[in-house]
Design brief:
290 residues; mainly alpha; 9 helices; nucleus; Translin_N
């Protein structure tokens, strides 16, 4: 047995080779030392950053919830008699969402947005989806990222009263001006989610006997799909991952247009939705097998 091992066959610890009086004993840490002062400042900075991140996560959750409620409201347009009333109500809801985004912009004042982007991206995507959905209902066109960002310029005055005003690119917090820019990835992911809402609107329209909306939605989705096809696998992973879902939504809408065009005259309007739903299930099963 080696002389480095004790009677029990275990290797001795390194400090057992030193006399007890020469072992390193714990000493009181000097809180005023430069090292401790530096690490104390690091701790305070990290704690403040973590707290800010958690506040942004909560704001993003609120933005997501309110944006979803706006989308649910806009879906009532297919069956509601008064279009303008619902659009006005949706604009009020979106104004409330923008007030939450103002709080995000204030939290990010002086910070690098990309360090906190993961905390707010879900909320921004849902906001883009809600705004673009409302814009499509109004104009049958796609809202641009620049138009969205123009709505996210805020000027606070008169003790916190917020007014959206166009201003210069420079941020001037001294005069209460904040802005938040939606990133291209947030915009693309929001538009990709929009296609699913348009597919649902198409289904509701068919059920209500509206034969114009499905063809308008089909043409629009084809243009969006062509645009995403140019990006392909060269874009961010999240964008390319949603291309398959976008293709499914387009197939369902085109199938509805086929049913309306070929068999619409022979099928009663109240039965179109049933025929369409059956064909949709068949498409899902075929794509699942393949």
């Amino acid at each position: 047995m080696s002389n480095k091992e004790g009677s029990g066959g275990f290797r001795k610890r390194k400090y057992d080779n030193f006399p007890h009086n020469q072992r390193r004993e714990g000493k009181d840490v000097n809180a005023s030392s430069p090292v401790m002062v530096a690490f104390k400042s690091f701790q305070q900075e990290l704690d403040a950053r973590h707290d800010k991140y958690e506040r942004l996560v909560k704001l993003s959750r609120d933005i997501t919830v309110e944006s979803k409620r706006t989308i649910f409201l806009l879906h009532r347009i297919t069956s509601a008699p008064d279009l303008e009333e619902i659009l006005t109500e949706s604009e009020i809801k979106l104004d409330g969402v923008r007030q939450k985004i103002l709080q995000v912009a204030q939290e990010l004042s002086g910070e690098d947005m990309h360090q906190f982007h993961r905390a707010i991206t879900i909320g921004l995507q849902e906001y883009v989806e809600a705004v673009s959905f409302q814009h499509f209902i109004k104009t049958r066109s796609l809202i641009s990222m620049d138009e969205i960002n123009k709505q996210l310029i805020f000027t606070t005055e008169d003790n916190g009263k917020e007014n959206k005003t166009p201003s210069s690119d420079a941020q001037d917090n001294q005069f209460g001006t904040w802005r938040l820019k939606v990133t291209p990835v947030d915009y693309l992911l929001g538009v990709a989610d929009l296609t699913g809402e348009l597919m649902r609107m198409c289904i509701n329209s068919v059920g209500n006997g509206d034969i114009d909306t499905p063809f308008e939605v089909s043409q629009f989705l084809r243009q969006v799909y062509d645009g995403f096809s140019f990006i392909g696998n060269t874009g961010p992973y999240e964008v390319s991952k949603k291309l398959y879902t976008l293709k499914q939504s387009l197939a369902k809408v085109e199938n509805a247009c086929y049913a309306l065009k070929v068999r619409g005259s022979e099928i009663p309007k109240h039965m179109l939705a049933d025929v369409f739903s059956v064909k949709t299930e068949m498409i899902d099963q075929e794509e699942g097998i393949s």
